[in-house]
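quick one before i forget lol
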Amino acid sequence: MLDVRSLETAGPAEEGRFFEAFEREVEGTGDEAARHHLNAGRPIYVGEDAFPGRVVRLYPDGRRELMRLDEHNVLVVERAL
């Protein structure tokens, strides 16, 4: 468990190591939460570099849809992937 209070006295090197560890912890938690949603039968939404300005909706059965915001800022399916 990371202790954010350590940043109060940390130098630049320690700060860098703290944030690297923090990012690893957040990424691991995100994967766990995503798996939980998929296992519960719910889709998840992810960004992919191949589709800037879009999100991909992933279903538990493996289907994928490219999503975008319409003119009313409603998320709509652009196409199946």
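fyi Residues 12-39 form the longest helix (28 residues).
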